[in-house]
Amino acid sequence: MSRGLCELSIVELSALIQSKQVSPVEVTAEVVERIRERNPRLNAFVTVTAELAEEQARAAEQEILRGNYRGPLHGVPVAVKDMMYTRGVRTTAGSKILAEFVPDSDATVVARLRQAGAVLVGKTALHEFAYGITNDNPHYGPTRNPWNRERSSGGSSGGSSVAVAAGMSFAALGTDTGGSIRIPASFCGVAGLKPTFGRVSLHGILPLGYTLDHAGPLARTVEDVSLVYQAIAGFDPNDKYSADCSVGEIRLHTLFPNVSLPGRGRESVVRVGVPKDYFFDSLQPDVERLVRQAIRVLEKLGARVIPVEFPGMADLTAASRTSLLVEAAAVHRKNLETHSGDFGADVKTLLEKGREVSAAEYVDAQLTRRRFGRQFERLFERVDLLVTPTTPLTAFSVGETKVVFGEKGKEKEEDTRAAATRLLRAFNASGHPALSVCCGFDGHELPVGLQIIGRLFEEAAILQCGHAYEQATGWHKRMPPKP
Hints:
Layout: H1 10-18, H2 24-42, E1 45-48, H3 50-65, E2 77-81, H4 108-115, E3 119-124, E4 136-137, E5 141-142, E6 144-145, E7 148-152, H5 158-165, E8 171-176, H6 182-188, E9 191-194, E10 214-219, H7 222-232, E11 258-261, E12 265-269, E13 271-275, H8 285-300, E14 304-308, H9 313-331, H10 333-338, H11 345-354, H12 359-382, E15 385-389, E16 402-405, E17 412-415, H13 416-421, H14 425-430, E18 434-441, E19 447-454, H15 459-473
Parallel strand pairs: 2-3, 2-8, 13-14, 13-15
Antiparallel strand pairs: 1-3, 4-5, 6-7, 8-10, 9-10, 9-18, 11-12, 15-19, 16-17, 18-19
Helix pairs in contact: 2-3, 5-6, 7-15, 9-11, 9-12
């Protein structure tokens, strides 16, 4: 085999496990060894569960030998963001406050991974309480980008993306409140899915923004993301936001040129909307070039590209930011009163700012979100998908707080946090599903992300589109150098 086990996709690995050519014990041992070798330089994990993983791998091996194969995740090493409850394993949320917290139950998504037979190799690093996009954590140190260790991994699910990109896990779970799955997916060159709000249970996941939080998978291929998504998605009566609607089986057939789409009958040409403005304002040149190339690939595959206008996106982005400020402050009200000195400076500043937002401002933000929700519904009558850059920039240096866009003499400086979330927050506010896939590398050999957005509860369409794009290009096959 030309590639080591850690470089295989879940689809490739599961075929070897099912046919008993490879043992889960063997795979897990290789992954744990890779974590021991690479994690000290990348800092992707807060906690490595080597003994638990070995125990689960042995159990999976015995089940498979007895003919009790559970499916494509059985015996496959995975990781979960350290916001998610794991029974008997500490859940720090990247904080000093919860440094020794050990839950006595699993989050629903973790329980569903266990049911699928997955092997848990560890809890991944994050920005403190998931409130930030750099993963430069004052308590646990910065998470390093595997393509260049001087660059940010992105966050707040940075540890999950790095673990996947560096072959320390075949998939990982993250959370996304303002882009926290899609930013690190873009920066690290992996696939990351933010499902529709309510599609994946939040039960047992420490909250950040009650009406903005989403949980979803990251993996090296869209096909692998789809497998994990189908394992964790679905109604959960323990989650008050959970949507009671069927997920169904997702078959990643070739999406283009003619497919059956919900509400449009059979043999419909896929209509891909490309915004004329906002999403293509203030981009790094390589990002715009590669995203436009990706759009041409979709067109060559048979999509009908339709330019669309969607004025006021900055208002929706601002409404999403306001909503999060208030909701995060509400989540951490007691911690601010009792553990104020234990927060990192950046998170504490945001939480205190959230306490200053008025009730009227919060209500206005909710009205803006509702208004744009109706506008999105009308837009998706004209198109089946939207395609944009994931982030306007590639991974910036660790510790960098400002980025400059524009030509010489026309430079515009922007806060790195605002820039990284600018194209993403709107879809947390609206709840629409969004996928990031790698669409190439810039002049510094850093990945660029393509964002694909779909109608509410139509994850299948964006996964099919992302898979078709990957099959036509092959960017997802590249692995970062050994750190």
